[in-house]
Amino acid sequence: MRVTDLLVVGAGPAGLGAAIEAARLGAKVLLVDENLKAGGQLYKQIHKFFGSGAHYAGTRGFQIADILLGQAEELGVETWLDTRALGLLDDGTVAVLRKGKVEPVKAGKIILATGAKENALAFPGWTLPGVMTAGAAQTFSNVHGTLAGKRILMVGSGNVGLIVSYQLMQAGAEICALVEAAPQITGYLVHAGKIQRAGVPVYTGHTVVEARGTGEVEEAVIAQVDERFQPIPGTERALAVDTILLAVGLNPRTELAAMFRCQTTYEGALGGILPVHDGWMRSTNPDIYVCGDLAGVEEANTALEEGRLAGVHAACALGYHGEQAQEKMNALRESLRSLRGGAHALRRLSGKERVIEKGESAYV
Amino acid sequence: MYLSGREHPIVDYPERKQVRFTFDGTQLMGLEGQPIAAALVDNGIRAFRHTHKTGQPRGLFCGIGQCSDCVVVVNGTPNVRSCVTPLEEGMVIETQHGLGKVGVRCE
Prior knowledge:
The structure holds two protein chains of two kinds. By secondary structure, chain A is of the alpha/beta class. Helix content of chain A is about 30%, strand content about 25%.
């Protein structure tokens, strides 16, 4: 049995932010992650981040990961990699699987930062090898140096679809086309411009209707859609591609939160079902915090700030007050407001406000 | 298709040692520590397993160990997620047919 003040599950930006801030206030932190390396999905983000200097603008994702890992190490955060949190045991301890053995961890507070998973899209042939998530191709190219496809159809024009298209072109792949079911591009136009200037055809009001091939993808069929997103017969067109990448959103990984009896709610703009939480990132279980994509799919900077907020609040709740803790929490909430300040974030912002309202009512 | 040594505008790929492994009995070369799935893709292999009921091929899907679509048999152990398992010298890798045999050694 391992006893600690704070257990953080997930070492992406949210979990690292939480661990760093709680450790800074003096809490004993154990950070666990199922992967062989900490940093979550930051290592595949080779583009520069937007925003202000306070939010690492101009710094690439993998560089931000290096900075955060350095800070966590400096602050004495104990990190167990290749370690999976399996669930809650009857006595309130968390079962973690480490090096093939289950070890119970007893923690005063638990912060869940389990992230999100990419959505799939079902169409005839979608199970063929060569159909995969955009994130898979991004990870393989940017992290492992392997191109998962040479001639690619990208499905979805959100920022993931646009950025991954550009990054795969940087690595030498050809993006034969990008289809988007909505009538307009849904990601940032600055990202869209990069691939359009390079000659990638972007078909809005189109979707993929079939993947064809013997044993693997050899052809993709796309078609125009009507205003109810239904393919219009007669508009089908075949493209010779070996790979179809799905960039059709993500959804929170809520399994652990649900096991920990955290109440959940549905917010489409935040990825679907997610744990209800208050303005301090507390779930409806007062010992469990949620943050990052688990608490609503947004982006890495938001995840980091939510993690920091959860970390400070959890440390305070454990008795590690520190002088400026309250000031810091207020500043983090202000920072989150500014990250959600743009017109592009309106739906996410109102979704988040509804979630927090539900969360606050649990603590009245 | 490994990009090491190629010009990438942003990423510096680490130098990695070449190792030998077999896939369904065929001798192949890969890079030590790269995911098994990457080594297979580099060798032009995209179907990693065949499904239990209908024998359809499956390959890389999520790439980060979440979906289990890419499992293979490694040194006799089935259900190894090839996208998050590092390649080692001498690995015996096989296409997984179905769910993996009951009673097969698991480490």
